[in-house]
Amino acid sequence: MSASLLHYPDVSSGVLCENAKTLGHASELLVDSVFARLGIPVASFAEHSPFDRMIWIGSNCLRVQVKGRHRMTDGGYHFDIKRGYQRGPNGTREYDRGDFDVLALVGLPHDIVKFTASWSKSHVIRGHEIPGLRNRPGASLQQALDALGLSGTTPADCAI
């Protein structure tokens, strides 16, 4: 356990940076928890894949990219959708349009996940959305499925 994270989310930006991989893994585990609660089979993928998870809903296999945030700014969690690490040897770069099907946006301090199939370079979870995302964790996933043309499919239709 990292003693520096004992007071998360009330930690410095430096502590967040030092523990980026650990906190990213925590975001992925929260998404896994939501999928488990919805009865959705899930598989994880290697760190350098363009997606983090694969899920099965009915006969559909969907690739899911997970992005987590740790601080709210301007009334929401703001996400810039890029791959790589700013301080990594290759920096960050844009995703290709076909890299994933669903984006899982995580506001880790609030234990919330917002799913979207909207292809955009940036997304926001607004503060007023938090209670709904917490109370109905599958609602945004259903909206993402509808946007993908899978409106006849619900999370309850899951099977491998």
Quick structural gist:
The protein has 160 residues and is an alpha+beta fold.
Description:
The protein has 160 residues and is an alpha+beta fold. It contains four helices and nine strands; from the N terminus they run ααβββββββββαα. The protein has helices at 13-18, 20-37, 130-135, 139-147; strands at 42-44, 53-57, 60-69, 76-80, 83-84, 92-93, 102-107, 112-116, 122-126. The protein has a five-stranded mixed sheet with strand order 1-2-3-7-8. β7 (102-107) and β8 form a beta hairpin. The protein is globular. The N and C termini lie far apart (35 Å). The model has no long low-confidence stretch (mean pLDDT 89).
Query: How do the strands of the widest beta sheet line up side by side?
Result: 1-2-3-7-8
Radius of gyration: 16 Å
Task: Spell the H/E element sequence.
Answer: HHEEEEEEEEEHH
The main pleated sheet reads as:
5 strands, mixed
Structural class: alpha+beta
Instruction: Specify the number of helices.
Output: 4
**What's the total count of β strands?**
9
Q: Helix share of residues?
A: 10-25%
The low-pLDDT segments are none
Q: What integer is the average pLDDT?
A: 89
Overall shape = globular
Portion in beta strands: 25-35%
N-to-C CA distance: 35 Å
